[in-house]
Amino acid sequence: MAASDQLEIVYPNGEIKFYDLAGRGITNIGRHPENDVVINSPDVALFHAVLDHRRKPCQIVLLDPQAQTRVKGQPLPANTAQELRNWDTIEVNGLAIIYLESQGAQPAIPPTARGPAPSPALPVAPVARVAPVTRPTPTPPLPAAAPTPTSAEQPPPPTLAPVRPALAAPVAPRLAMMPPDQTDDAIVVDLSVHEWVIDVEQTATCQVSIANGGEIVATFRVSLEGLDETWYAISPPQINLNEGERGTVTIAFSAPRLPTSLAGPHHFSIVVTSPNYPGRVARRGATLTLNPYQEFSVGELSPRQQTIPYRQRSGEATIPISNKGNSDTPFRLSAEDDQRGCSFEFKVPGHEATLAQQAEVRVQPEETLSIPLFITPHSRRLVGVGKHPYNYTLTTTPLAGTQTPRSVLGQVHTAPLIGPWLIALMALLMVVLIVLIFRPTISQFNADPQDILAGEETSFSWRASQFAGLRIDPDVGTVSGPEGSKPFAPKQSTTYKLSAYNLLTRINSQWFGETKEFPVTVEPVKPIIRVFSADKVNALAGEPVTISWEVLRADTVSLINNGAQTTLLSSEFTGKRTFTAIEGITTIELAANNIYGETRKSLVVKVTSPTATPLPPPIIERFDVQPLVITMGQSVKIDWLVSNVQKVNIAPIPEALPPTGSISHVPGENPQRYTLTASNGQTETILYREVAVYPAPTATPIPQPPTIEFFTVSPSEVVRGSDDANNIQLSWSVVGDYTNIEINGPDLGKLSNLDRQGSVTVGASRTTVFILSAYNGDKVATAQGSLKVDEPTATPPPSPTPPPTPTPIPDPLIEYFLPAEVPTDTGNVVPLGGGKYQVVANTKVKFRWSTTNASKVSLSANGANLGDQPVVGESTSFLILQAAQYQLTAANSTGVQKSSFVQLVIKPLPVPPSPTNVNGPLNKITPVTITWDYDSNYLSRIIGFRVYRANAPFHSFVLASGSTPIGTTPPFSWVDPNATCGQAYYVTAVYQNYTDVGIVNQETAPSTSRYYTWPCATPTPKP
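Given the sequence above, the corresponding structure tokens read:
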């Protein structure tokens, strides 16, 4: 840490500069040369900001209201002082300014005491277990990229900038590892656990303690933000508390064993609200980390058997590998034949050249990768009586986890140039040629369009051989050929078959005939009552009332006046009638029928005496049910706004409701129809909404790992070279179901397939740790035993003897070279095996090592030398933004060198959520303004939005808002000047993500809801 406060400036091109703040109390920052800190960037104002660091915490004031500046991810208001603490980041459009306090500065937030850092140990395979991490009373969070160090942790990085990989794009804003806490004096919330590390299908629980700090009895509701809602259950979801009373809510977490349950941390917030304290909320950040699991499958070779002709150099087969785990997995593929008569080459994605005999590939979760294999025989025969077979074996070996390799068998035959069957083959070819000449064939048969509405026409088109007869079934019949088209209007969805035939078809329909099928989807359309209205719904007795209607796609139409039914002629499907109002309530219905069903609409005309004053009709201004597709047991939210009424009814909700409101309801059937009825006693208005309800998935039993009763090392301390050091007894006992028991040790190697109880005698020459692992499928339990090896006690020197022959200087040895996170225990560095580690983008990493017999140690990154290092120690921190390889080299006094490598690969940050509540106008208005909502917790990662549009039947969505993303300033909206009837819209968010090659722009999944414009008028069917 520097002796004085500093500013670290990271430019978008990767350049880094430091400015000392020593000797100043007020520091001016800007582009003008008269500033104390001059930043030559067009995004920085001439006089941008003032930093007051005369006391801690220091304060920053933004001078230019037009400058887009953020502190800790939040917009910085102009002319308002805001506190700035150690490692806080000021962001100006890709340029980052980091405030670094001196080593002697007192932190603004008291550090949390921790135990001493553990000494380096041998790498141990990750163990699936629930590991809740308790935290003290929550304090305001610091940015996750650079937290304040605690008293027991290693000191922060020095002021000299470490070597960093060059940036290919602007530096993204630093993101919090865990959502910030939000406290409230009326809603007092505490968590029993803030962080968990579990396996998939394993359950972790959290006790949420809620205290009513207000002065009234209140109801408190608990919800989660940022976590898949299928991963948790809240019991109970809400509690009632008196003033000062405390209650507890339990949350159970369990992620399904699916590739979509990605390994690594999942950050979320636990939110507590109360309808009795409007606008007040308490939040607690938490992290659920999922352990990786490995599972894969290997498909069949395609083809499994093949023949390589004489003129063909090699044969080709493909092998599919499917990763069913939740983390990317490396595999090694190798192939060999029994006779050693073939060479094998693999074509691996990303490699231009083929790889001989074996290759390594990485497969992402839920991905199936097909690898081509080329088989080349070493020798060929010019003349032979048959084909020569080669049987070969292709083996797929996972390089991570403990799963066993899997092999598949294949066979190739090499054919000679000349064989006894050549003449027979030529004769057969002549027969085949005759069959092909006279065989009817169909090269094309389709319908355009394929998806139509009932009553619309589609056009069949075909192309067949010259002398073939053609017929389309059903309903169409014989058509002329060999090429043509024919319009047809099907009434229902049908798969049509085109048959090609000639006179020889009767001999053998398979040889001398061909058929092709093409499905046509007809969407049923019930009759459409486009217009059904009365010139008045409240009339005086004796007044004339005119009813108008327009009906489309109907076979029959009936007009029902107070129960009296009149069937209309087809010429009257559009028309009007007038009747004289009689005092009372007159109900008029219009019923339209066709083969797909019936559509009804009704009108109520209330006739009063001339002295009665008619009431204004009810108006349903809003009726929305979201979401429209749910799983059984989930709830929907119903919002409504009705004018000119005192009460409304929404079936199947039994009680009467106010004219405006919002409630939740759990549907009980599929589909669930919600009917809103608004009546003022004279006029009634009805509107429907329908929700699809799908059954909930059934739970599967969770296998449990075995239990290790004991694992001992006896004796646990020996003297090197003694009899005890060569007779160390390892004893163990395991209970429960198991599939394998093994012991690992640095000098021991691996002992597998051990009995449930037993012991084994081993020897050791150095201090070490033995690991016992008990497996039940992919579930594992581990235990370790330590052995300390002491050096022999020195003995008095013997009588002087001639000088011994000089002992050769031993070679240097690198005992370990490992990466470590800063701060530790965040789960952002995951070992992949073979010296490879996966690092979450934007994580700080330092390296630790230990060497023996070395006089000089050096460290390099991607070939760039980082200088000499101590023989045992650790490096400064490195901010990991892209893939890199680090090398530790140890040399002795004679110049002998040994090297160890660590390869870091990037794990992109989690995908932000999709936009929600996509909406637009309810009536016919152009242009159309599309609006949507987005979670403010993720806005710092979003660079814009895109709107997609599709026409009915809404299969093909295209980008409508242009290639430039829409801005991120609320409220979010976009105007479509080209909107028409019968269109659908959804919205995606564009965000930046880190990969092994740099920062790339990606899109989230489509929004959880869509907006539909008004329906198009259906054309009058042709007679």
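The first strand starts at residue 6 and ends at 10. Try to locate this feature in the token string yourself.
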